[in-house]
Amino acid sequence: MLAAGGLLWQAESTAERDGSHGRRELAVVHRPKYDDWSLPKGKVDPGEQLVVTARREVSEETGAVAVCGQVVGEQRYRVAAGMKYVRYWAMRYGGGDFTAQEEVDELLWLPTRQAVRKLSYQHDRQLAQRFADSPIADATLLIVRHAKAGKKRRWKGDDNLRPLDADGITQAQLLTSVAPCYGPDRIATADLVRCADTLRPVSQETGIPVDIEPLLGRDAYAGSPKATLDWVREQVAAGGTTLICSQGEVIPDLLTRLSARSPIQLRRPPARKGSVWVLSFVRGKLVGADYDADLAPATPV
User: Fold this and answer.
1) pLDDT at residue 240 above 60?
2) What would the mean pLDDT of 150-161 be, rounded to a whole number?
3) Strand order in the sheet with 285-292
4) CB neighbours (10 Å) of residue 212?
5) Average pLDDT over every residue of 104-116
6) Beta-carbon contacts of residue 92 (< 8 Å; ≥ 6 apart)
7) What burial class does residue 63 get, using C-beta atoms within 10 Å of its C-beta: 0-12 exposed, 13-18 middle, 19+ buried?
């Protein structure tokens, strides 16, 4: 059984907004059916990806507009129907009002240490404690390898103009449900039609324009990896969420360089067509890396 949820938080002070260990409040919910206090979560709907499930369930149970950050952890435990797998994201509260309902009749905002004590289950308390002990990412970088664009050898024109094929168009549409979960502030792509077309549906969904950045392309990267790396680090330093699209000849090496001298080392990372890397940073240092191998619904783990 697959499920997903969130550690929905809001800051008690401006110090938390820059990723420090300032005071946070965590949302915990009461479920009358079980008379317990838990973290908001729920089952995956057919055809849904886990991060989409997590954000939807948090919204349904708390009324909050949530912005996803890094993955906090996973749980595996036995229920009556068998083994249950739940993945949780840190989620920043972005507004919205709670309304009592049949499934959840009460919501409390508690300082994280109090929230740990309030939760009914040990696996939830351990997860909340991990969240309490960790800094919150101040920047998120989504790196997408362009969606499928057919075989290069079958395209007779300029390769930069090669468009997405039918599967690629489907992948690009699926990205419109995933990328908005992270609240993108900026969208940029290499100067290839297939890269721009991969992100254009997200641009239309969010209203954020797509910037063409030649440094994200294969040829520019081969000429000066440092120039591309510096540009990417500028986006990270700006904070918020940046969504970019590039090529398979760029992404693995770029990820390796971005992770150098960070707690997370990415060596020879995969980058399938249509895949998404979600990187979380605190003061420019990589602290989380989550890989979605392709834009497809969640499958049992």
Assistant:
1) yes
2) 87
3) 210-212, 186-189, 240-246, 139-145, 276-282, 285-292
4) 13
5) 97
6) 9, 10, 66, 67, 69, 136
7) middle
Closest CA to 240 of 212, 281, 201: 281
* Residue 212 to residue 250: CA distance in whole angstroms: 16
What's the average model confidence in pLDDT over 155-163? 89
Average pLDDT, the chain: 93
Cβ pair 115, 26 in contact under 8 A: yes
User: Which helix (H) or strand (E) covers residue 288, if one does?
Assistant: strand 285-292
Q: What secondary structure, in 3-state letters, does 24-72 show? A: EEEEEEEECCCCEEECCEEECCCCCCHHHHHHHHHHHHHCCCEEEEEEE
Closest CA to 212 of 201, 200, 196: 196
Which among 153, 146, 159 is positioned nearest to 251, based on CA atoms?
146
What is the C-alpha to C-alpha distance for residues 170 and 149, in angstroms, rounded to an integer? 11
Is residue 107 over pLDDT 80?
yes
